[in-house]
Hints:
Helices cover 37% and strands 14% of the residues. By secondary structure, it is of the alpha/beta class.
Amino acid sequence: xxxxxxxxxxxxxxDLSRVIAGPWCGALLGxxxxxxxxxxxxxxxxxxxxxxxYKDGEAAAYLLFNRNKRGMTLDLKAPEGAEVVKTxxxxxxxLVENFRTGTMExxxxxxxxxxxxxxxxxxxxxxxxxxxxxxxxxxxxxxxLQAFSGIMSITGEPDGPPVRSAVSFLDLTTGILCTLxxxxxxxxxxxxxxxxxxxxxxxxxxxxxxxYHAEGYLLAGAVPxxxxxxxxxxSPYRNFRCQDGQ
Length: 246
């Protein structure tokens, strides 16, 4: 009996990203059946390789974010390395990258260049602030964007200091949203025959996740505040100590 095909069977992805958001996107595409080729630099490779804990010398985080992938190393700063990427892209469906704005262009691997090689290419860029706008050149990471977006100011106990969420949910959710954007681009390509650029950012993810907190401020001027485990609209809704002391 032939197994039921996965949604992205036959889709080839070139994953140039590292750390969390981009690799998580690549791993999810692999979960959906895509063939993912992970490209790391020729030095230390992906930074997540150094994050404890380890199992048999390999970092748990690296294994999680890079499951389903085949691997290779390239020096993208060398013309020869960039040419290998162009060769891969000519037969690929998707490229994922999360370098700082302008870096891929400095390698000769910007969207316009690669789209000329393969007009069907879906080129996903992931960054802190997006590839357009006044902060497009600014670097950023999880904790900074939790603070910059205001999320950190409403996390924690009342009258307590701002608290970073222990889960890197902006990185992870950005990866999920980029996976959604890539899947939508694959569907649209079926109708148009053309690829497109997908632009994901931690800031856009943060603003979307503020959801009713942001909408309440925009519509009613209600400033969100930290409530611990409580809820701004529902009651009773928080942690309570029970008879067993837990």
